Amino acid sequence: MGAWNRRWCERILGFCGLCLLAIAFVIGLGVVMHLLGLSRLIDFERSYWLVGRAITFNSLMGLQVLLFSMAIMLALAPVLLLDRHVRVDVLHGRLSRRGQRWLEMVGHLGFALPFFGFLLWPAWRFVERAFLTGERSTDGGLNDLYVIKALLPLGIVMVLVALLIAITCLLRGRTPREVAHG
Fold first, then answer.
1. Rounded CA gap, 52 and 179, in Å?
2. Ramachandran assignment for 120, one of left (phi > 0), alpha (psi -120 to 50 degrees), beta (any other)
């Protein structure tokens, strides 16, 4: 994987962390709006991408979903490549390094790759349908909901690429973490 890939993974995870901080800000703004009895924060004279003609309480809720989707879907691949994911199996810690690599290979090839591979097409259709129909919030929330939905196939593609990188590393006798850290 190399040092530059590790830096990119770290940058993506840093961006995901900023998304989580932004969620806290948006939630706080929504709470203040609620306490003041405001349903509209800002009105615009013309329509803007994603928010339309106003930033409303409902558009802030949609923004929370967008930020959370970005934080989760974009973090999956870097977490996999940096080997920072949670392990729930009881075998991994008891195995030799070679056994651990084989267990990861079986997990990647037998479970993760087929799961994310089969998930990609329906995820793409989900976004395509939202884009083609011009799906929007019906309650004054965000316009262009395909933007939020597009994070699903984007994250899946990133995970599939990360899995292929991980499998390649494992076939060469090293884990992605060992490759990333030299």
1. 46
2. alpha
The residue to which tokens 């190399």 are assigned: 2
Chain CA centroid to CA 97, Å: 30
Is the CB of residue 51 less than 8 Å from the CB of residue 59?
A: yes
Determine the Cα–Cα distance for residues 48 and 117; give it in Å rounded to an integer. 35
The residue type at 88: V
CA distances from 102 to 1, 11, 76, 96, 115 (A): 19, 29, 21, 10, 19
The angle at the Cα of 180, spanning 166 to 112, to the nearest 5 degrees, equals: 20
pTM of the model: 0.85
| Sign of the dihedral through C-alpha 72, 75, 81, 84 | negative
Distance (Å, whole) CA 167 – CA 174:
10
- Predicted confidence at residue 180, as pLDDT, reads 65
DSSP, collapsed to helix, strand or coil, labels residue 47 as strand
- Indicate whether 152 pLDDT > 90: yes
- According to DSSP, the β-strands at 52-56 and 40-48 are antiparallel
Q: What is the mean pLDDT of residues 153-179?
A: 89
Distance of alpha carbon 59 from alpha carbon 36, whole angstroms? 17
